[in-house]
Design brief:
0% strand, rod-shaped, mainly alpha, 2 helices, Methyl-accepting transducer domain-containing protein, Helix Hairpins, 141 residues, 95% helix, transducer, MCPsignal_dom
């Protein structure tokens, strides 16, 4: 009777270990997909940052040209001042967006690092589960 219970307990433990290992493998696979998605997002954010930097440069150039036109066209002073104010606002918004993009890129890098750490931990757990399964097999009658 104790031998049957021991054998049955060992089978139950082996079954649980297999379920844990399967769950861990599924988690590792999902984390891999998440890592890929984050990396793709980082590339998109990087491209957006470059685009915003180009926009910022272009807006600054336009703002500079508008200021020079203002100096030479005093008669159009009122309309020109309004254009300058709008160009400055666009430059400020573009600069703020570029800064925000850099923050997002940094957060993406942190998320990727965390995901990689989680993946490594899950792989370690999977290996431990396999070793435990092998050790449990030794007790099977």
């Amino acid at each position: 009777m104790p031998a049957e219970q021991s054998s049955q307990s060992a089978e139950e433990i082996a079954h649980l270990i297999h379920r844990v290992r399967d769950d861990i493998q599924a988690s590792v696979k999902a984390m891999g997909a998440t890592t890929l998605s984050v990396q793709e997002g980082r590339v998109g954010v990087s491209h957006a940052g470059e685009s915003f930097a180009q926009i910022l440069t272009a807006v600054r150039d336009v703002s500079s040209q508008v200021h020079r036109m203002n100096d030479s066209a005093q008669a159009m002073n009122q309309g020109t001042e309004q254009l300058v104010a709008q160009a400055d606002e666009i430059a400020r918004l573009a600069q703020q967006t570029a800064l925000d993009t850099q923050e997002v890129a940094g957060a993406s890098e942190q998320q990727t690092a965390t995901t990689e750490e989680m993946t490594a931990a899950a792989e370690t757990l999977a290996k431990m589960a396999e070793r435990l399964s092998e050790q449990v097999k030794q007790f099977t009658i």
